[in-house]
Design a protein that fits this description.
The chain is an alpha/beta fold. It folds into 3 domains: about 5-105, Udp-n-acetylmuramoylalanyl-d-glutamate--2,6- Diaminopimelate Ligase, Chain: A, domain 1 (3-Layer(aba) Sandwich); about 110-335, 3-Layer(aba) Sandwich (UDP-N-acetylmuramoyl-L-alanine:D-glutamate ligase), CATH 3.40.1190.10; about 345-490, Mur ligase, C-terminal domain (Protein-Tyrosine Phosphatase, Chain A), CATH 3.90.190. It is about 35% helix and about 20% strand. The strands form 6 sheets. The chain has an 8-stranded mixed sheet, with helices on both faces. Strands 18-19-23-20-21-22 form a 6-stranded mixed sheet, with helices on both faces. β13, α11 and β14 (about 270) form a beta-alpha-beta unit. α4 (about 95-105) runs parallel beside α6 (about 170-180), α12 (about 305-320) packs across α13 and α15 crosses α16. The protein is globular. The termini are far apart.
Length: about 500
Protein backbone atom coordinates (compact mmCIF):
# COMPACT_ATOMS: atom_id res chain seq x y z
CA UNK A 1 0.00 0.00 0.00
CA UNK A 2 1.42 3.37 -1.04
CA UNK A 3 1.10 6.22 1.49
CA UNK A 4 -1.88 8.48 0.80
CA UNK A 5 -3.44 11.51 2.41
CA UNK A 6 -6.61 10.61 4.29
CA UNK A 7 -8.62 13.23 2.37
CA UNK A 8 -7.38 11.76 -0.92
CA UNK A 9 -8.51 8.29 0.11
CA UNK A 10 -11.96 9.59 1.03
CA UNK A 11 -12.30 11.56 -2.19
CA UNK A 12 -11.43 8.42 -4.15
CA UNK A 13 -13.95 6.38 -2.17
CA UNK A 14 -16.87 8.78 -2.79
CA UNK A 15 -18.38 8.09 0.64
CA UNK A 16 -20.14 10.32 3.11
CA UNK A 17 -19.00 10.56 6.71
CA UNK A 18 -20.47 12.31 9.74
CA UNK A 19 -17.30 13.52 11.54
CA UNK A 20 -14.85 16.31 10.74
CA UNK A 21 -11.48 15.12 9.51
CA UNK A 22 -9.43 17.50 11.58
CA UNK A 23 -5.78 16.95 10.58
CA UNK A 24 -5.14 15.35 7.20
CA UNK A 25 -2.35 12.83 7.88
CA UNK A 26 -0.55 10.48 5.54
CA UNK A 27 -1.96 6.97 5.86
CA UNK A 28 0.69 4.24 5.76
CA UNK A 29 -1.54 1.23 6.57
CA UNK A 30 -5.06 0.26 7.66
CA UNK A 31 -6.09 -2.28 10.29
CA UNK A 32 -9.04 -3.22 12.48
CA UNK A 33 -6.80 -4.98 15.03
CA UNK A 34 -5.25 -2.68 17.64
CA UNK A 35 -2.43 -5.21 18.10
CA UNK A 36 -1.37 -4.64 14.48
CA UNK A 37 -1.34 -0.86 14.55
CA UNK A 38 1.91 0.66 13.26
CA UNK A 39 2.99 4.30 12.94
CA UNK A 40 0.86 6.06 10.34
CA UNK A 41 -2.05 3.60 10.58
CA UNK A 42 -5.73 4.19 10.00
CA UNK A 43 -7.41 2.26 12.82
CA UNK A 44 -10.91 0.97 12.08
CA UNK A 45 -13.36 0.46 14.96
CA UNK A 46 -15.51 -2.33 13.52
CA UNK A 47 -19.07 -2.74 14.84
CA UNK A 48 -19.15 -5.71 17.23
CA UNK A 49 -21.79 -7.44 19.33
CA UNK A 50 -19.13 -8.54 21.83
CA UNK A 51 -17.70 -5.17 22.88
CA UNK A 52 -17.34 -1.51 22.01
CA UNK A 53 -14.29 -1.41 19.75
CA UNK A 54 -13.93 2.33 20.36
CA UNK A 55 -12.37 1.29 23.68
CA UNK A 56 -9.22 0.42 21.71
CA UNK A 57 -8.67 3.97 20.47
CA UNK A 58 -6.14 4.94 23.19
CA UNK A 59 -4.16 1.74 22.56
CA UNK A 60 -4.18 2.40 18.82
CA UNK A 61 -3.03 5.99 19.30
CA UNK A 62 -0.18 4.88 21.54
CA UNK A 63 0.94 2.37 18.89
CA UNK A 64 1.14 5.11 16.26
CA UNK A 65 -2.32 5.42 14.68
CA UNK A 66 -2.88 8.84 13.08
CA UNK A 67 -6.53 8.44 12.10
CA UNK A 68 -9.54 6.30 12.93
CA UNK A 69 -12.87 5.17 11.55
CA UNK A 70 -15.67 5.27 14.12
CA UNK A 71 -19.34 4.26 13.99
CA UNK A 72 -20.74 6.06 17.04
CA UNK A 73 -20.93 9.84 17.35
CA UNK A 74 -20.24 9.54 21.09
CA UNK A 75 -16.71 8.33 20.27
CA UNK A 76 -15.93 11.51 18.34
CA UNK A 77 -14.88 13.48 21.43
CA UNK A 78 -12.59 10.67 22.58
CA UNK A 79 -10.93 10.35 19.19
CA UNK A 80 -10.46 14.10 18.79
CA UNK A 81 -9.08 14.32 22.32
CA UNK A 82 -6.43 11.80 21.34
CA UNK A 83 -5.44 13.95 18.38
CA UNK A 84 -6.67 11.45 15.78
CA UNK A 85 -8.17 12.42 12.45
CA UNK A 86 -11.68 11.02 12.45
CA UNK A 87 -13.85 9.40 9.79
CA UNK A 88 -17.34 8.65 11.07
CA UNK A 89 -19.47 6.08 9.27
CA UNK A 90 -23.03 5.20 10.15
CA UNK A 91 -23.71 1.71 11.50
CA UNK A 92 -27.17 1.50 9.95
CA UNK A 93 -27.95 -1.62 7.92
CA UNK A 94 -24.92 -2.60 5.85
CA UNK A 95 -23.74 0.97 5.28
CA UNK A 96 -20.57 0.64 7.38
CA UNK A 97 -19.07 -2.22 5.35
CA UNK A 98 -20.29 -0.66 2.12
CA UNK A 99 -18.42 2.59 2.79
CA UNK A 100 -15.40 0.97 4.46
CA UNK A 101 -14.84 -1.29 1.46
CA UNK A 102 -14.62 1.71 -0.82
CA UNK A 103 -12.23 3.52 1.49
CA UNK A 104 -9.96 0.46 1.57
CA UNK A 105 -10.19 0.12 -2.20
CA UNK A 106 -9.05 3.73 -2.53
CA UNK A 107 -6.18 3.28 -0.05
CA UNK A 108 -4.91 0.22 -1.93
CA UNK A 109 -5.44 1.79 -5.40
CA UNK A 110 -7.94 -0.95 -6.24
CA UNK A 111 -5.80 -4.05 -6.83
CA UNK A 112 -8.91 -5.88 -8.09
CA UNK A 113 -9.08 -3.59 -11.14
CA UNK A 114 -5.84 -5.01 -12.56
CA UNK A 115 -6.77 -8.68 -12.04
CA UNK A 116 -9.43 -10.99 -13.40
CA UNK A 117 -11.69 -11.45 -10.39
CA UNK A 118 -14.17 -14.32 -10.04
CA UNK A 119 -16.77 -14.57 -7.28
CA UNK A 120 -18.25 -18.02 -6.60
CA UNK A 121 -21.46 -18.33 -4.61
CA UNK A 122 -23.97 -21.08 -3.81
CA UNK A 123 -24.83 -23.32 -0.89
CA UNK A 124 -22.56 -26.16 -1.96
CA UNK A 125 -19.55 -26.44 -4.26
CA UNK A 126 -18.03 -22.98 -3.74
CA UNK A 127 -14.73 -24.21 -2.38
CA UNK A 128 -14.19 -26.97 -4.92
CA UNK A 129 -15.25 -24.85 -7.89
CA UNK A 130 -13.00 -21.96 -6.81
CA UNK A 131 -10.09 -24.35 -6.15
CA UNK A 132 -10.46 -25.89 -9.61
CA UNK A 133 -10.55 -22.47 -11.27
CA UNK A 134 -7.47 -21.20 -9.44
CA UNK A 135 -5.34 -24.16 -10.47
CA UNK A 136 -6.74 -24.29 -14.00
CA UNK A 137 -5.89 -20.61 -14.49
CA UNK A 138 -2.35 -21.31 -13.29
CA UNK A 139 -2.04 -24.00 -15.95
CA UNK A 140 -3.40 -21.64 -18.59
CA UNK A 141 -0.58 -19.17 -17.94
CA UNK A 142 -2.63 -16.81 -15.79
CA UNK A 143 -1.11 -16.95 -12.26
CA UNK A 144 -4.06 -16.99 -9.88
CA UNK A 145 -4.88 -16.64 -6.20
CA UNK A 146 -7.64 -18.39 -4.26
CA UNK A 147 -9.51 -16.82 -1.33
CA UNK A 148 -12.03 -18.78 0.70
CA UNK A 149 -12.66 -21.62 3.12
CA UNK A 150 -9.20 -23.10 2.54
CA UNK A 151 -7.50 -19.73 3.19
CA UNK A 152 -5.57 -17.42 0.91
CA UNK A 153 -3.40 -19.18 -1.66
CA UNK A 154 -1.27 -16.93 -3.88
CA UNK A 155 1.49 -17.84 -6.35
CA UNK A 156 3.99 -17.71 -3.48
CA UNK A 157 2.26 -18.32 -0.13
CA UNK A 158 -0.69 -19.80 1.79
CA UNK A 159 -2.45 -18.19 4.76
CA UNK A 160 -5.35 -19.27 6.99
CA UNK A 161 -8.46 -17.10 7.21
CA UNK A 162 -10.97 -16.56 10.01
CA UNK A 163 -13.91 -16.24 7.58
CA UNK A 164 -14.76 -17.70 4.17
CA UNK A 165 -15.07 -14.14 2.88
CA UNK A 166 -13.20 -11.69 5.16
CA UNK A 167 -14.47 -8.30 6.31
CA UNK A 168 -13.40 -5.28 4.23
CA UNK A 169 -10.12 -4.34 5.93
CA UNK A 170 -8.75 -7.88 5.81
CA UNK A 171 -10.29 -8.57 2.42
CA UNK A 172 -8.58 -5.65 0.69
CA UNK A 173 -5.31 -6.47 2.40
CA UNK A 174 -5.51 -10.01 1.02
CA UNK A 175 -6.43 -8.78 -2.48
CA UNK A 176 -3.42 -6.47 -2.38
CA UNK A 177 -1.22 -9.35 -1.15
CA UNK A 178 -2.40 -11.49 -4.06
CA UNK A 179 -1.51 -8.76 -6.53
CA UNK A 180 1.89 -8.18 -4.90
CA UNK A 181 2.59 -11.93 -5.10
CA UNK A 182 2.13 -11.88 -8.84
CA UNK A 183 -1.48 -13.01 -9.19
CA UNK A 184 -3.14 -11.93 -12.43
CA UNK A 185 -6.45 -13.47 -11.36
CA UNK A 186 -8.28 -13.92 -8.07
CA UNK A 187 -10.94 -16.57 -7.48
CA UNK A 188 -12.87 -15.95 -4.28
CA UNK A 189 -15.74 -17.63 -2.49
CA UNK A 190 -18.61 -15.23 -1.86
CA UNK A 191 -20.64 -16.39 1.13
CA UNK A 192 -24.22 -15.26 1.66
CA UNK A 193 -23.16 -13.57 4.92
CA UNK A 194 -20.54 -11.55 3.05
CA UNK A 195 -22.81 -10.65 0.14
CA UNK A 196 -25.63 -9.50 2.40
CA UNK A 197 -23.16 -7.69 4.68
CA UNK A 198 -21.59 -5.87 1.70
CA UNK A 199 -18.12 -7.12 2.59
CA UNK A 200 -17.24 -7.27 -1.13
CA UNK A 201 -18.13 -3.61 -1.59
CA UNK A 202 -16.00 -2.00 -4.29
CA UNK A 203 -14.45 -5.22 -5.64
CA UNK A 204 -14.07 -5.09 -9.43
CA UNK A 205 -15.56 -8.43 -10.45
CA UNK A 206 -15.29 -9.96 -13.92
CA UNK A 207 -17.64 -12.89 -13.47
CA UNK A 208 -19.88 -14.43 -10.83
CA UNK A 209 -20.57 -18.17 -10.65
CA UNK A 210 -23.70 -19.63 -9.03
CA UNK A 211 -23.58 -23.32 -8.10
CA UNK A 212 -26.88 -24.10 -6.33
CA UNK A 213 -29.28 -23.09 -3.57
CA UNK A 214 -30.43 -25.39 -0.77
CA UNK A 215 -31.20 -24.88 2.90
CA UNK A 216 -28.41 -23.45 5.04
CA UNK A 217 -27.71 -20.43 7.27
CA UNK A 218 -31.35 -19.82 8.14
CA UNK A 219 -30.16 -18.92 11.64
CA UNK A 220 -28.67 -15.82 9.98
CA UNK A 221 -31.03 -15.06 7.09
CA UNK A 222 -34.28 -16.22 8.68
CA UNK A 223 -36.00 -17.46 5.52
CA UNK A 224 -35.04 -19.17 2.28
CA UNK A 225 -36.32 -16.12 0.42
CA UNK A 226 -33.87 -13.86 2.26
CA UNK A 227 -31.06 -16.39 1.78
CA UNK A 228 -31.75 -16.52 -1.96
CA UNK A 229 -31.90 -12.72 -2.18
CA UNK A 230 -28.45 -12.51 -0.56
CA UNK A 231 -26.98 -14.86 -3.17
CA UNK A 232 -28.60 -12.96 -6.03
CA UNK A 233 -26.86 -9.73 -4.95
CA UNK A 234 -23.66 -10.98 -6.60
CA UNK A 235 -25.38 -10.86 -9.99
CA UNK A 236 -27.28 -7.60 -9.48
CA UNK A 237 -25.82 -5.07 -7.06
CA UNK A 238 -22.21 -6.26 -7.17
CA UNK A 239 -22.33 -6.84 -10.93
CA UNK A 240 -23.61 -3.31 -11.56
CA UNK A 241 -20.89 -1.78 -9.36
CA UNK A 242 -17.97 -3.86 -10.66
CA UNK A 243 -16.79 -1.34 -13.25
CA UNK A 244 -16.11 -4.21 -15.67
CA UNK A 245 -18.11 -6.08 -18.28
CA UNK A 246 -19.49 -8.53 -15.75
CA UNK A 247 -20.79 -11.95 -16.84
CA UNK A 248 -23.05 -14.31 -14.87
CA UNK A 249 -22.31 -18.05 -14.90
CA UNK A 250 -25.45 -19.85 -13.74
CA UNK A 251 -26.33 -23.48 -13.03
CA UNK A 252 -29.61 -23.78 -14.92
CA UNK A 253 -30.38 -27.07 -13.19
CA UNK A 254 -31.23 -24.96 -10.14
CA UNK A 255 -34.66 -23.26 -9.94
CA UNK A 256 -33.16 -20.07 -8.51
CA UNK A 257 -30.88 -19.62 -11.52
CA UNK A 258 -33.75 -20.19 -13.94
CA UNK A 259 -35.76 -17.55 -12.09
CA UNK A 260 -32.93 -15.00 -12.02
CA UNK A 261 -31.60 -15.34 -15.56
CA UNK A 262 -34.29 -13.38 -17.48
CA UNK A 263 -33.94 -10.35 -15.20
CA UNK A 264 -30.15 -10.01 -15.15
CA UNK A 265 -28.53 -7.10 -16.98
CA UNK A 266 -25.29 -9.03 -17.54
CA UNK A 267 -24.58 -11.68 -20.20
CA UNK A 268 -25.42 -15.16 -18.90
CA UNK A 269 -23.22 -18.22 -19.48
CA UNK A 270 -25.49 -21.14 -18.62
CA UNK A 271 -24.41 -24.66 -17.64
CA UNK A 272 -25.77 -27.69 -15.85
CA UNK A 273 -28.91 -28.41 -17.91
CA UNK A 274 -29.66 -29.60 -21.45
CA UNK A 275 -29.49 -26.74 -23.92
CA UNK A 276 -27.06 -24.74 -21.77
CA UNK A 277 -24.38 -22.61 -23.40
CA UNK A 278 -21.69 -24.83 -21.83
CA UNK A 279 -22.75 -28.48 -21.85
CA UNK A 280 -20.62 -31.16 -20.21
CA UNK A 281 -21.10 -34.70 -18.93
CA UNK A 282 -19.15 -36.58 -16.25
CA UNK A 283 -18.44 -40.23 -17.12
CA UNK A 284 -16.44 -43.12 -15.65
CA UNK A 285 -16.75 -41.70 -12.15
CA UNK A 286 -14.45 -43.37 -9.58
CA UNK A 287 -13.35 -42.66 -6.02
CA UNK A 288 -10.31 -40.76 -7.25
CA UNK A 289 -11.22 -39.53 -10.72
CA UNK A 290 -13.77 -38.85 -13.46
CA UNK A 291 -13.85 -37.99 -17.14
CA UNK A 292 -15.43 -34.71 -18.21
CA UNK A 293 -16.75 -34.60 -21.78
CA UNK A 294 -17.78 -31.37 -23.53
CA UNK A 295 -18.18 -30.30 -27.15
CA UNK A 296 -16.41 -33.36 -28.51
CA UNK A 297 -13.41 -32.99 -26.19
CA UNK A 298 -12.69 -34.82 -22.93
CA UNK A 299 -10.26 -34.86 -20.03
CA UNK A 300 -9.58 -37.20 -17.13
CA UNK A 301 -9.80 -35.21 -13.89
CA UNK A 302 -8.06 -36.08 -10.62
CA UNK A 303 -11.07 -35.89 -8.30
CA UNK A 304 -13.90 -38.39 -7.97
CA UNK A 305 -17.56 -38.45 -7.07
CA UNK A 306 -20.61 -37.52 -9.10
CA UNK A 307 -21.10 -34.16 -7.41
CA UNK A 308 -17.53 -33.19 -8.34
CA UNK A 309 -18.66 -33.58 -11.93
CA UNK A 310 -21.12 -30.76 -11.19
CA UNK A 311 -18.34 -28.62 -9.71
CA UNK A 312 -16.14 -29.33 -12.71
CA UNK A 313 -18.93 -28.18 -15.03
CA UNK A 314 -19.14 -24.92 -13.08
CA UNK A 315 -15.38 -24.40 -13.36
CA UNK A 316 -15.45 -25.22 -17.07
CA UNK A 317 -18.23 -22.68 -17.66
CA UNK A 318 -16.26 -20.10 -15.68
CA UNK A 319 -13.19 -20.60 -17.86
CA UNK A 320 -15.29 -20.26 -21.01
CA UNK A 321 -16.83 -17.06 -19.64
CA UNK A 322 -13.30 -15.74 -19.06
CA UNK A 323 -12.49 -16.33 -22.73
CA UNK A 324 -10.86 -19.75 -23.00
CA UNK A 325 -11.92 -22.43 -25.46
CA UNK A 326 -13.51 -25.67 -24.29
CA UNK A 327 -10.60 -27.94 -25.19
CA UNK A 328 -7.88 -25.87 -23.53
CA UNK A 329 -10.12 -25.35 -20.50
CA UNK A 330 -10.63 -29.11 -20.16
CA UNK A 331 -6.90 -29.74 -20.52
CA UNK A 332 -6.20 -27.27 -17.71
CA UNK A 333 -8.79 -28.88 -15.42
CA UNK A 334 -7.04 -32.23 -15.91
CA UNK A 335 -4.04 -30.85 -14.02
CA UNK A 336 -5.96 -29.65 -10.95
CA UNK A 337 -4.91 -31.46 -7.74
CA UNK A 338 -7.57 -32.96 -5.41
CA UNK A 339 -9.23 -30.53 -3.02
CA UNK A 340 -8.29 -31.07 0.65
CA UNK A 341 -11.22 -32.48 2.59
CA UNK A 342 -13.52 -32.82 -0.42
CA UNK A 343 -14.20 -36.47 -1.35
CA UNK A 344 -10.73 -37.12 0.02
CA UNK A 345 -9.80 -40.78 0.23
CA UNK A 346 -7.88 -42.12 3.26
CA UNK A 347 -5.68 -45.00 2.01
CA UNK A 348 -5.56 -48.29 3.92
CA UNK A 349 -4.83 -52.00 3.48
CA UNK A 350 -8.11 -53.28 4.92
CA UNK A 351 -10.22 -53.15 1.75
CA UNK A 352 -12.36 -50.42 3.27
CA UNK A 353 -13.13 -47.23 1.40
CA UNK A 354 -12.73 -44.22 3.70
CA UNK A 355 -13.73 -40.75 2.54
CA UNK A 356 -13.44 -37.43 4.35
CA UNK A 357 -15.71 -34.66 3.12
CA UNK A 358 -16.83 -31.19 4.22
CA UNK A 359 -20.52 -31.85 3.45
CA UNK A 360 -22.46 -30.12 6.24
CA UNK A 361 -25.82 -29.32 4.66
CA UNK A 362 -28.64 -31.75 3.80
CA UNK A 363 -28.17 -31.25 0.06
CA UNK A 364 -24.37 -31.56 0.22
CA UNK A 365 -24.65 -34.76 2.25
CA UNK A 366 -27.23 -36.14 -0.18
CA UNK A 367 -24.98 -35.37 -3.17
CA UNK A 368 -21.98 -36.89 -1.40
CA UNK A 369 -23.74 -40.10 -0.47
CA UNK A 370 -25.28 -40.50 -3.91
CA UNK A 371 -21.79 -40.22 -5.34
CA UNK A 372 -20.68 -42.94 -2.94
CA UNK A 373 -23.66 -45.12 -3.90
CA UNK A 374 -22.63 -44.78 -7.55
CA UNK A 375 -19.45 -46.67 -6.62
CA UNK A 376 -21.61 -49.68 -5.64
CA UNK A 377 -20.05 -50.43 -2.24
CA UNK A 378 -21.08 -53.36 -0.08
CA UNK A 379 -22.41 -50.97 2.60
CA UNK A 380 -22.26 -47.24 3.30
CA UNK A 381 -21.46 -46.22 6.89
CA UNK A 382 -21.82 -42.48 7.48
CA UNK A 383 -20.31 -40.60 10.41
CA UNK A 384 -21.75 -37.10 10.76
CA UNK A 385 -23.02 -34.44 13.15
CA UNK A 386 -24.31 -30.86 13.14
CA UNK A 387 -22.67 -27.69 14.41
CA UNK A 388 -23.84 -25.93 17.53
CA UNK A 389 -25.12 -22.33 17.51
CA UNK A 390 -26.14 -22.77 13.88
CA UNK A 391 -29.30 -23.50 11.88
CA UNK A 392 -31.17 -26.02 14.05
CA UNK A 393 -33.75 -26.64 11.36
CA UNK A 394 -31.33 -28.56 9.20
CA UNK A 395 -30.43 -31.10 11.91
CA UNK A 396 -33.28 -33.56 11.28
CA UNK A 397 -32.88 -32.95 7.54
CA UNK A 398 -29.22 -33.99 7.73
CA UNK A 399 -30.27 -37.14 9.58
CA UNK A 400 -32.96 -37.95 7.02
CA UNK A 401 -30.45 -37.56 4.17
CA UNK A 402 -27.91 -39.78 5.91
CA UNK A 403 -30.49 -42.42 6.85
CA UNK A 404 -31.92 -42.65 3.34
CA UNK A 405 -28.57 -43.26 1.66
CA UNK A 406 -26.61 -45.12 4.36
CA UNK A 407 -26.78 -48.64 5.70
CA UNK A 408 -25.56 -47.44 9.10
CA UNK A 409 -25.49 -43.93 10.56
CA UNK A 410 -23.07 -42.92 13.30
CA UNK A 411 -24.20 -39.62 14.81
CA UNK A 412 -21.51 -37.64 16.59
CA UNK A 413 -20.37 -34.10 17.38
CA UNK A 414 -19.31 -31.58 14.74
CA UNK A 415 -18.38 -28.22 16.30
CA UNK A 416 -20.71 -28.12 19.32
CA UNK A 417 -19.61 -24.59 20.25
CA UNK A 418 -21.68 -23.39 23.23
CA UNK A 419 -24.42 -26.04 22.92
CA UNK A 420 -24.54 -29.36 24.75
CA UNK A 421 -23.36 -32.08 22.31
CA UNK A 422 -25.93 -34.61 23.52
CA UNK A 423 -28.75 -32.11 22.98
CA UNK A 424 -27.57 -31.49 19.41
CA UNK A 425 -27.45 -35.24 18.79
CA UNK A 426 -30.98 -35.60 20.19
CA UNK A 427 -32.22 -33.09 17.59
CA UNK A 428 -30.29 -34.84 14.81
CA UNK A 429 -31.50 -38.34 15.73
CA UNK A 430 -35.08 -37.09 15.70
CA UNK A 431 -34.83 -37.02 11.90
CA UNK A 432 -33.82 -40.69 11.58
CA UNK A 433 -36.85 -42.85 10.70
CA UNK A 434 -37.86 -45.52 13.16
CA UNK A 435 -36.16 -48.82 12.48
CA UNK A 436 -33.15 -47.29 10.74
CA UNK A 437 -29.89 -48.63 12.12
CA UNK A 438 -27.87 -45.93 13.84
CA UNK A 439 -25.40 -45.44 16.64
CA UNK A 440 -24.60 -42.31 18.65
CA UNK A 441 -21.19 -41.40 20.06
CA UNK A 442 -20.64 -37.78 21.13
CA UNK A 443 -16.84 -38.07 21.06
CA UNK A 444 -15.92 -37.65 17.37
CA UNK A 445 -12.64 -39.55 17.60
CA UNK A 446 -14.39 -42.48 19.25
CA UNK A 447 -17.21 -42.34 16.69
CA UNK A 448 -14.74 -42.64 13.81
CA UNK A 449 -12.93 -45.51 15.54
CA UNK A 450 -16.25 -47.28 16.18
CA UNK A 451 -17.38 -46.90 12.55
CA UNK A 452 -14.12 -48.26 11.16
CA UNK A 453 -14.26 -51.22 13.53
CA UNK A 454 -17.75 -51.99 12.24
CA UNK A 455 -16.65 -51.79 8.58
CA UNK A 456 -15.91 -54.84 6.46
CA UNK A 457 -14.02 -55.17 3.17
CA UNK A 458 -16.06 -53.58 0.39
CA UNK A 459 -17.73 -51.08 2.72
CA UNK A 460 -17.25 -47.33 2.39
CA UNK A 461 -17.05 -45.22 5.54
CA UNK A 462 -17.96 -41.60 4.93
CA UNK A 463 -16.80 -39.06 7.54
CA UNK A 464 -18.74 -35.92 6.79
CA UNK A 465 -18.98 -32.36 8.05
CA UNK A 466 -15.47 -31.08 8.75
CA UNK A 467 -13.37 -32.00 5.74
CA UNK A 468 -10.13 -30.02 5.70
CA UNK A 469 -10.69 -28.50 9.17
CA UNK A 470 -8.01 -29.46 11.67
CA UNK A 471 -9.86 -28.34 14.78
CA UNK A 472 -13.05 -28.74 16.78
CA UNK A 473 -14.79 -25.80 18.46
CA UNK A 474 -16.02 -26.57 21.96
CA UNK A 475 -17.39 -23.60 23.84
CA UNK A 476 -15.49 -20.72 22.29
CA UNK A 477 -12.16 -22.54 22.04
CA UNK A 478 -10.56 -24.41 19.14
CA UNK A 479 -8.96 -27.75 19.89
CA UNK A 480 -6.72 -29.65 17.41
CA UNK A 481 -8.70 -32.34 15.57
CA UNK A 482 -8.45 -33.74 12.05
CA UNK A 483 -10.87 -36.31 10.65
CA UNK A 484 -8.22 -37.51 8.20
CA UNK A 485 -5.63 -38.01 10.95
CA UNK A 486 -8.10 -39.68 13.31
CA UNK A 487 -9.19 -42.05 10.55
CA UNK A 488 -5.60 -42.90 9.66
CA UNK A 489 -4.80 -43.56 13.32
CA UNK A 490 -7.83 -45.79 13.76
CA UNK A 491 -7.04 -47.68 10.55
CA UNK A 492 -3.48 -48.19 11.73
CA UNK A 493 -4.62 -50.05 14.83
CA UNK A 494 -7.48 -51.89 13.13
CA UNK A 495 -7.60 -55.67 13.14
CA UNK A 496 -8.79 -56.83 9.73
CA UNK A 497 -12.46 -57.76 9.74
CA UNK A 498 -13.62 -60.66 7.64
Amino acid sequence: MNPKRLSEALDGAHVRHFADLGPDPWIQSVTADSRQVAPGALFVCMPSAQRDTHDFLPEAKEAGAVACVIHDAQALTVAQGLGLAVVGLTDEGQSFNFCLGRICRSLYDDPSASMRVVGVTGTNGKTTTAWMLKHALDELGCPAAYLGTLGLVTPSRSLELANTTPFPVELWGFIDTARADGAEALVMEASSHALFGRRLSGVSLDIGIFTNLTQDHLDYHGTMEAYEAAKKLLFTEYAAASGKEFASVLNMADPAARKWAPDLASPVFSYGAPGSMVEAVATDVKVDGLTLVSNGAEARLRFGGRYNGENARAALAGLVALGWGTEEALDSLATVPPVPGRFEAVPNDHGIGVLVDYAHTPDALTSLLRSVKDLQPRRVITVFGCGGDRDRGKRPLMAAAAAELSDLCVVTSDNPRTEDPETIIDEVVAGIPNGTEHHRVADRKEAIRWALNEARPGDVVVIAGKGHEDYQIIGREKFPMSDREMASEALGSLVSNG
